[in-house]
Amino acid sequence: MSSDFSICNSNNPEQLEEAFGKLGLFLNRPEPCIICTACQYALHPSAEAVSKHLWSVHETPPAARKGLNRAVKSLRFPNPSTLPVRHDGSTLHPHLAVLNGAVCKICDFRTTSLELMSRHMSKKHRRKNDRKTWVSDEVDLDTNT
Ligand SMILES: [Zn+2]
Ligand SMILES: [Zn+2]
Questions:
Q1: Tens-digit pLDDT profile for residues 132-141
Q2: Whole-angstrom Cα distance, residue 98 to residue 118?
Q3: Residue 126 Cα, ligand 2 centroid: separation in angstroms?
Q4: What is the mean pLDDT of the chain?
Q5: Domain spans in the chain, listed from the N-terminal domain onward
């Protein structure tokens, strides 16, 4: 198996995407991040982290990773934790795991914690701190079951 990175032009996004794709990595847009499609999460976008992930988790041989470090560095992606949350109503991300959560229908606040939602409802909307009064009426529970 030879690396596509060695022959691909890093100024050509399609070639880059294809080369990453062969390693099971997805270059996400518009939020810039590298997603491992097998693990369904965004990798830390440093060359070392991506290389190490491929090697330690997926045993991708060094030959296939040739040129990868340079390609990752050329992307200059920010740390995924600094990225904005995905817009609501956006289609389900094909490569990310879906988390269960709750959405406030009044102000669109969202969280994966009912504890936090409970605090949100009482503080922001003066709803009683009683789940029954706001779940379903004012909060969408996204259970994805
Ligand atoms: Zn992975
Ligand atoms: Zn709210």
A1: 666 656 666 6
A2: 21
A3: 10
A4: 79
A5: 13-82, 101-142
